Amino acid sequence: MAIPVIYNLRSVRQRPVSTTFTASGMGLVVLVFIAMMALSRGFRSALVETGSRENVIVVRSGADNELISGLSRQTAQTITGMPFVARTPDGRPLASPEVYVLVSLERLGGSDALVVARGIDPEAFQVRKNVRIIAGRMFNPGAPEILVGKNIVGRFAGTEIGGVISFANRDWTVVGHFAAGGSAFESEIWGENEQFMPAFRGDVFQSLTFRMSDPGAFQSIRQTLEDDPRLPVDAHREYDFYANQSYLLTRILSFAATFIAGIMAIGAIFGAVNTMYATVSARAPEIAVLLPLGFRPLSVLASFLLEASLIALLGGLLGCLFSLPLNGIVTSTTNWQSMSEVAFAFRVTPELLLRGIIFALVMGLVGGFFPALKAARQPVVQAARQA
Amino acid sequence: MKYARLVWVNMMRNKRRTVLTTLSVAAALFLFVSLRSVNTTLADARQVGSESRMVTRHAISIVFFLPESYYGWLVTVPGVKSVSWAEWFNGIYRDPRDFFPSFAVEAESYLAMYPEMVIPEDQRRAFLGERTAALVGSGLMERFGWTLGQTIQLRSPIWAPDQDWPFTIRAVYTPTNPSFGDALFFFHYEYLYENAGRRAQPGWYVLEIEDPALAASVAETIDEHYRNSRAATKTETERAFQTGFVTMYGNVGFLMNAIGLAVFFAILLVAANAMMMAARERTSEVAVLKTLGYSDRLLFGLVLAEAATITLIGGLLGVFGAKLAFEGSGFQGLGFLPGFQVKWATAMAGMAIALSLGLASGIVPAWWAARLPVAETLRRVG
Question: What residues in B contact A255, CB-CB < 8 Å?
Answer without folding.
Answer: 334
